[in-house]
Amino acid sequence: MASKRTTRASTRATKSSKDDITPSDDHHDDDDDDNNRSEAVEVKKPVRGKRTAPTSDGSEKKAKAEPPSRPLYSHWLMKSEPESRIENGIDVKFGIEDLKALPGQTGCWDGVRNYQARNFMKDMREGHQAFFYHSNCKEPGIAGVMEVVKEAYVDHTQFDKKDVHFDGSSKPENPKWSMVDVQYRRTLRRFIPLAELKKHHLQHSAKGGALKNMALFTRARLSVQPLTSEEFDFVLDLENKESI
Asked: Which of 17, 56, 125, 216 has a CA 20 to 30 Å removed from the CA of 140?
C-alpha cells in the first residue's frame, strides 16, 4: 500500500481479513507455499522398454540443458489496501480511488518485496492491462482496471530509511527491487468480490473452466499475479452479470 503522498502506490499486504484468503508475500523471499492448490500431485511411473539412443549431434543433451521458457503474459492482477492501516507512523492505504485522484491518474507501484512478484513486474510491458484488487479489507475483490504506462525501473523506496519499505540490504549500485508506473483506466460497473471469484474457481476446478488455475487461488500470497487472457476476459465479463 502507499502513504498519502501522491507519488507512490505500494502493494504490500501483511494481514489477512477474514474474507481474504492469505496476506501477500511482499516482505518475504519467494516461497512455494501452495497450500491452496487444488490439483493433486501426479506420481509418474518409470517407463519400461528401450531407451532412445542419443543423436549424434548432441541435440538431446542440449535440450536437457535448456530449461523450458517462461509463459508470456499480458494481463495482471495487482493487490493494494484500500483501507487505512498505520505502519511505522505512515498510513499505507492506497485504493483505486487514490490512484484515480493522482495527477494524470498515474502512480508508481512501489513497495513490492517479494522476488517472484518483482519478476512479474519486470515482465510487464507498456499497454498491458491489470486488475486493481482491493486486499486486506472488509470485502476484498476486483475494483477496476489500470494500464502499465512505464516498464520496470528501480524502486526508490528501498533506499529511504523513513519509508515503511526500506531495505537496508539493498544497495544503489545493486538494487534488489523494481516498480512500474500504472494509470487508472476505469472502475468496474460492479465490484467483483473474492467470494464470488472463489465460487467460479471451485466450479471450474471440478468441471473445467477459465478460472481453474487462477493464481489468486493457487498462489494467493502473491501481491502481483499473472492472468491468462482467458482468465482476464472471464472476470471482466462478470461485471455485466449478476453475482452468483
From this structure: 125
What is the distance between the alpha carbons of residues 124 and 73, in angstroms, rounded to a whole number?
8
CA 38 to chain CA centroid, nearest Å = 19
Cα–Cα distance for residue pair 164/26, rounded to 1 Å: 12
Question: What region, left, alpha or beta, does residue 89 occupy, with left being phi > 0 and alpha being psi -120 to 50 degrees?
Answer: left
- The H or E element containing residue 215 is helix 215-218
Can you tell me which residue has the cell 519509508?
A: 163
Radius of gyration of the chain (CA): 20
Q: What's the maximum distance between 2 C-alpha atoms anywhere in the chain? A: 67
For residue 230, how far is the Cα from the chain centroid? 16
pTM score: 0.76
- Distance (Å, rounded) from C-alpha 36 to C-alpha 221? 10
pLDDT (tens digit, 9 = 90+) per residue, 27-56?
Answer: 433 433 333 433 443 444 443 343 444 444
- Of the chain, the end-to-end C-alpha distance in Å amounts to 30
Could you read off the pLDDT of 84-113 as tens digits, one per residue?
A: 999 989 999 999 999 999 999 999 999 999
Angle between helices 194-207 and 229-238 (to 10 degrees): 130
CB atoms within 10 A of CB 134: 25
Q: Domains in the chain, ordered, with CATH?
A: 9-31+68-238 (3.10.590.10)
Pairing verdict, β 224-227 and 129-134: unpaired
